[in-house]
């Protein structure tokens, strides 16, 4: 076996020499700029969809016009084929980034004339503790962050806490796709509120950068189910160095702040805005943070503004403090279609429910803003209503619940559009 | 290591049991027709005794006679005049075996009367009306073949393996697979022998034949074999067979440091009727074959450049599809089976006590796909299974045949995955990244999981011949299976803490069979009642204390079916069969499993299928030297309530849940053409086409299924096979025999996911054309055989499953010796 390894080594070394000597700028993927940089061509939107409820059957397809026509995944689209599930991101240059959750690979694609070409691929597991089940989020045009929490069983040291959570973060530079900074594995301390409520941090996501700080929403889990969890929490790190982590709390709202697959926190103006995943009769609250602290002088009770109980796991900032919220109304009659879209104005603290069809937006992840319009896909499930999946185009400036039009028509049936990127 | 002690004791007992045999006279020879065609399955027996044998596929026989003096030895065959020859044998006969050559003349007068009597058991099973392929393994015993390879050449059956020796194996019969297809060893469900005793563990020299039932399964297999059953029939020492002792050994060595050895033997005392049989096996392989598919990704592990700055290519894939050698895939298994009992008693035709022990060790190279290599993960397991078997024909009164089996088995399987090391595809350690704490466990979680299984099986069957042409039969089986598991490295809230899953399956079958019109027409009807009582004693960690919660769900189902077989002429026979079959639900599917993150699905219904077969056996040409035969079967499967795993969201996390959401209709055809020229040449061609479509128009939530009427994914649907075999005797010396065989298989590409969505980068198992050769040489004296086998000789990239490459060219040599 030793001998085999030695020979393999020789081969690898020889190969690397060969590869190094052969490389020239033409083959360098960084120089293979996609269509987008050519200003004469229109922007391409990438639509990701999951088929038949299977997270590992994820496809993406490009479309130039979201306002009309139709897009079908029948015989069309790139099979991302992840081990467990996939996340898609795009940048302003037109690159498409895909993270294979479960495989641990961050992939970069170019898109030309309807076809995707993989130009770079990177294995993040070795910098994430050897674990490929980690979460990515593109926070700006320069950065994708990869992050994870691993909660371990420990001996109860007398405070009722028998879990300890380690946090891993890696900063990935884009469009290069190269590792830029790595957080030294940080053990999240059990703070007084964790000891009191017998809880621990089990997940972080929705990272948002503002100035020299990065803010992570987080999820807590109860060790003792009989004690209800309260508060909203954030982990703050110095950015871009990924040092000096802090774990902070606000008691203005109750619920986890990690959202689902990112999208629960946004840097708007001078602040980072954060929502909770409200459970039961708790209100959906927007809080804001700055300089690594919660702003204790500001809150927005969206439930009160709307006048109806709901919760959210993802919301999208369309500009000027106008946001569109994936909103679950748990008392909705049709259990397959409990989700609506709420327009929320952070400046005026108002909220209205848009008159789009109810659907299932649990796994919906992204919409796009073009000029003064916000585009997102709404795919009602099932035969209870007219199943008419479309890209809905919202007029950002209007406070009319009917201020939207139907755009691109999508496939009816057991394919779920996860987002427009 | 208690197992090693047990195995040692068993070996010791075996060594005692082979002492004290009487000398026997060995009579070898051949039975051919008057136009020099071999007569396979002809009966050769010593007149006025019960000692006799049947000829093999080439008409050869070896008869062990325990009597001395003059013997009259009779050869008979359907449609031929029997012939008697006399030999003189004495105890000090040292001149080697007696040789007898019989040339039988055709008997045209009484053809119909003797139509059935001389049939081999395999041929008789194929004429029962069931869609069954009976593989006579006697001619395979010289080859270093694996049973799974033999099965894979059976029309309608696909064996899909994840890798080399010991890898996970899935059987697919005419489009149904997974737990819809059940494996039996002498009628006992193979899963009760534990995972350390697999189909491949059974020495091929111990196997008489393998029956593959497609979709319609006789009642004596008391299990929910909805898609079909594979029954491995081991050699039985029958009262009338010739020898009172046998000892065979074989050893093979091949590519990837693969060793296979087995010793099998038997001994019977005629006076006392005490019979001892044993078989032992040892298999091991490094399985370090080369793989070079695109999933083999080579990364740059230099975190920093020589100038101390970050390497922009750190962890980037710098090459793909590199040829690498697997390095953590070794497999070892060994075990023994001993039967001691009596035969031919007035109170029992057969009463055997059996113990089967085995142990295995298997390394794990990667997860379900070859994404990342593991360097240390492995599993190991052991099984101890004692059993009793009782057979009595004409019990209580004439025509009532009774048999009973009892088996208890205890087995354990543990998974060990605790390392914080990570490996690259060259088997090198991946360097640590400073400041990053690495977690233990190469697969998703660190694991020290231990599964404990206990299984009790009681089976009884009785048949009564109302008269010569009418038979009534009943069969009852009671299988009580207890599985508990725990993984002390799992997070507290995800541990099973030894929660017990209990499945009690009680299956009762009743059948009526008749034979009409001089046995030209055979019919059977049957009904099965399935009682399935599932229980789970779930131990849960709740607010700091362990609670036990009890769940239970009994359910009842009926199945029924019929078969018919009609011989239009001796050369044309049609078979038809139909069954409404059931695949029962399991405890994990119904109650969930904390550790596997499966949530409960209390209303889950068993899967059901209406299975129909129509086929026939046609002798298209039968002349003096040449024979052309066609076996074909059309099949139809209407499967509904198919159980499918899907994802549900509970709280913050996604979990698996099992639902009945599939209606699948499968149609297809399989055919095999055999052409024999004398005994020298045998050519075979086979083809298989499956059209399996998803027929659910709407999803459970009411959405339109875009895959309505689409071809079912991850299912090979078009395959062809062909072989040519050449046999020559007296090549170098009188009495030797050489056999050369070439086998080619073509598997058409198939989609891993639904084919209708997407058009780029679709996961596809590619088309493959694989070729195997084997050559074997039987030395004069018929004791020693040498064989050489080459599999996948053109070193093609071979896949049974998506992105999991199977071995390339594999060579092996085997030596087999029959001591007596």
From TrEMBL, chain A:
Domain of life: Bacteria
Keywords: Signal
Secretion signal span: 1-19
Designated name of the protein: DUF4374 domain-containing protein
From TrEMBL, chain B:
A GO CC annotation given for this chain: cell outer membrane
Record localization: Cell outer membrane
rRNA-binding is among the record's keywords: no
PROSITE patterns reported for this sequence: TONB_DEPENDENT_REC_3
Domain of life: Bacteria
Major location (coarse): membrane
Keywords associated with the record: Cell outer membrane, Membrane, Receptor, Signal, Transmembrane, Transmembrane beta strand, Transport
SUPFAM superfamilies: Carboxypeptidase regulatory domain-like, Porins
Ranges for domain TonB-dependent receptor plug: 128-229
Molecular function via GO: siderophore uptake transmembrane transporter activity
GO BP terms in the entry: siderophore transmembrane transport
Topology in the lipid bilayer: Multi-pass membrane protein
Protein name listed in UniProt: Outer membrane receptor proteins, mostly Fe transport
Species annotation: Alkalitalea saponilacus
């Amino acid at each position: 076996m030793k001998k085999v390894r030695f020979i393999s080594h020789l081969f690898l070394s020889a190969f690397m020499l060969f590869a190094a000597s052969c490389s020239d700028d033409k083959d360098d993927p960084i120089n293979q700029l996609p269509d987008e940089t050519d200003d004469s061509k229109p922007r391409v939107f990438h639509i990701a969809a999951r088929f038949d409820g299977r997270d590992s059957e994820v496809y993406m397809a490009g479309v130039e016009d979201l306002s009309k026509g139709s897009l079908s995944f029948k015989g069309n689209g790139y099979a991302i084929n992840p081990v467990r599930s996939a996340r898609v991101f795009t940048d302003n240059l037109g690159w498409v980034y895909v993270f294979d959750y479960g495989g641990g690979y961050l992939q970069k694609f170019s898109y030309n004339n309807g076809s995707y070409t993989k130009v770079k691929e990177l294995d993040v597991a070795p910098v994430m503790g050897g674990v490929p089940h980690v979460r990515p989020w593109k926070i700006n045009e320069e950065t994708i962050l990869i992050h994870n929490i691993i909660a371990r069983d420990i001996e109860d040291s007398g405070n009722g806490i028998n879990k300890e959570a380690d946090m891993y973060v890696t900063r990935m530079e884009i469009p290069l796709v190269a590792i830029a900074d790595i957080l030294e594995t940080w053990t999240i301390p059990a703070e007084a509120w964790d000891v009191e409520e017998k809880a621990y941090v089990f997940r972080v996501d929705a990272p948002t950068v503002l100035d020299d700080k990065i803010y992570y929403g987080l999820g807590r889990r109860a060790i003792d189910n009989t004690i209800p969890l309260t508060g909203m929490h954030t982990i703050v790190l110095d950015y871009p160095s990924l040092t000096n982590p802090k774990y902070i709390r606000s008691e203005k709202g109750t619920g986890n702040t990690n959202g689902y697959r990112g999208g629960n926190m946004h840097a708007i103006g001078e602040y980072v805005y954060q929502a909770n995943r409200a459970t039961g009769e708790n209100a959906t609250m927007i809080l804001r943070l700055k300089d690594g602290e919660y702003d204790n002088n500001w809150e927005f009770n969206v439930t009160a503004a709307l006048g109806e109980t709901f919760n959210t796991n993802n919301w999208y900032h369309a500009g000027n403090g106008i946001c569109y919220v994936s909103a679950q109304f748990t008392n909705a009659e049709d259990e397959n279609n409990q989700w609506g879209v709420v327009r929320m104005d952070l400046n005026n603290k108002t909220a209205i429910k848009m008159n789009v069809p109810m659907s299932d937006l649990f796994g919906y992840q992204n919409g796009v803003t073009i000029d003064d319009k916000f585009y997102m896909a709404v795919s009602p499930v099932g035969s209870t209503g007219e199943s008419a999946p479309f890209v809905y185009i919202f007029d950002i400036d209007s406070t009319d619940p009917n201020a939207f039009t139907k755009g691109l028509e999508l496939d009816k049936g057991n394919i779920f559009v996860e987002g427009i990127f | 290591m208690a197992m090693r002690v047990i195995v040692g004791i068993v070996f010791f007992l075996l060594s005692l049991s082979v002492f004290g045999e009487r000398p026997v006279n060995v009579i070898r020879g051949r039975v051919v027709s008057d136009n020099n065609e071999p007569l396979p399955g002809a009966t050769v027996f010593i007149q006025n005794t019960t000692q006799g044998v049947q000829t093999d596929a080439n008409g050869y026989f070896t008869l062990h006679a325990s009597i001395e003096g003059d013997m009259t030895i009779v050869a008979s065959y359907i449609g031929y005049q029997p012939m008697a020859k006399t030999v003189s044998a004495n105890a000090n006969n040292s001149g080697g075996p007696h040789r007898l050559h019989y040339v039988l003349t055709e008997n045209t007068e009484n053809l119909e009367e003797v139509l059935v009597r001389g049939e081999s058991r395999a041929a008789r099973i194929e004429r029962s009306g069931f869609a069954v392929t009976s593989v006579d393994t006697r001619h395979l015993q010289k080859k270093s073949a694996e049973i799974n390879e033999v099965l894979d050449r059976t029309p309608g059956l696909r064996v899909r393996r994840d890798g080399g020796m010991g890898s996970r194996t899935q059987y697919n019969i005419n489009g149904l697979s997974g737990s819809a297809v059940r494996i039996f060893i002498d009628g006992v469900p193979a899963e009760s022998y534990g995972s350390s005793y697999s189909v491949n563990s059974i020495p091929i020299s111990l196997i008489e034949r393998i029956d593959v039932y497609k979709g319609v399964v006789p009642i004596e297999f008391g299990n929910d074999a909805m898609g079909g059953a594979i029954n491995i029939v081991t050699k039985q020492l029958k009262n009338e067979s010739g020898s009172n002792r046998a000892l065979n050994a074989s050893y093979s060595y091949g590519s990837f440091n693969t060793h296979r050895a087995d010793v099998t033997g038997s001994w019977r005392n005629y006076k006392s009727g005490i019979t001892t049989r044993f078989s032992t096996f040892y298999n091991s392989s490094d399985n370090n074959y080369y793989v070079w598919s695109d999933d083999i990704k080579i990364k740059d592990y230099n975190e920093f450049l020589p100038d101390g700055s970050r390497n922009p290519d750190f962890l980037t894939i710098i090459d793909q599809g590199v040829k690498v050698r697997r390095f953590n895939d070794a497999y070892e298994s060994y075990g023994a089976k001993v039967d001691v009992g009596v035969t031919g008693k007035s109170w029992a035709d057969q009463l055997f006590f059996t113990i089967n022990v085995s142990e295995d060790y298997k390394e794990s190279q990667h997860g379900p796909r070859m994404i990342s290599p593991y360097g240390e993960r492995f599993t190991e397991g052991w099984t101890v299974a004692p059993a009793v078997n009782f057979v009595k024909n004409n019990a209580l009164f004439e025509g009532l045949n009774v048999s009973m089996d009892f088996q208890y088995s205890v087995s354990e399987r543990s998974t060990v995955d605790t390392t914080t090391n990570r490996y690259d595809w060259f088997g090198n350690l991946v360097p640590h990244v400073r400041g990053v704490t690495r977690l233990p466990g190469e697969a998703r979680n660190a694991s020290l999981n231990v599964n404990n299984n206990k299984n009790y099986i009681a089976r009884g069957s009785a048949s009564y011949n109302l008269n010569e042409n009418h038979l009534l039969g009943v069969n009852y089986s009671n299988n009580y299976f207890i599985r508990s598991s725990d993984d002390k490295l799992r997070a507290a809230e995800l541990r099973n803490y030894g929660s017990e899953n209990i499945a009690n399956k009680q299956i009762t079958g009743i059948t009526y069979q008749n034979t009409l019109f001089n046995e030209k027409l055979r019919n059977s009807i049957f009904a099965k009642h399935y009682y399935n009582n599932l229980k789970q004693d779930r131990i849960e960690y709740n607010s700091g204390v362990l609670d036990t919660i009890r769940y239970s769900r009994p359910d009842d189902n009926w199945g029924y079916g019929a078969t018919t077989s009609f011989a239009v002429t001796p050369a044309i026979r049609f078979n038809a069969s139909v069954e409404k079959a059931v695949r029962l639900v399991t405890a994990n599917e119904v109650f969930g499993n904390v550790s596997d993150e499966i949530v409960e699905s209390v209303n889950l219904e068993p899967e059901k299928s209406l299975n129909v077969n129509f086929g026939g056996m046609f002798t298209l040409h039968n002349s003096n030297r040449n024979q052309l035969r066609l076996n074909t079967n059309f099949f139809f499967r209407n499967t509904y309530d198919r159980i499918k795993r899907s994802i549900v969201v509970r709280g913050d996390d996604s979990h698996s849940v099992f639902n009945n959401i599939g209606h699948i209709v499968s149609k297809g055809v399989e055919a095999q053409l055999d052409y024999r020229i004398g005994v020298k040449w045998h050519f075979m061609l086979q083809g298989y086409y499956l059209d399996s479509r998803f027929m659910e128009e709407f999803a459970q939530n009411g959405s339109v299924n875009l895959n309505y009427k689409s071809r079912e994914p991850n299912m090979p649907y078009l395959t062809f096979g062909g072989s040519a075999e050449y046999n020559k005797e007296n090549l170098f010396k009188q009495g030797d025999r050489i056999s050369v065989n070439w086998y080619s298989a073509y598997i058409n590409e198939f989609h891993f996911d639904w084919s209708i969505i997407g058009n780029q980068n679709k996961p596809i198992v590619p088309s493959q054309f694989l070729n195997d050769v084997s050559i074997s040489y039987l030395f004069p004296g018929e004791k020693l055989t040498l064989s050489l086998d080459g599999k996948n000789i053109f070193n093609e990239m071979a896949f049974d499953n998506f992105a999991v490459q199977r071995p390339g060219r594999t060579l092996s040599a085997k030596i087999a010796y029959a001591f007596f």
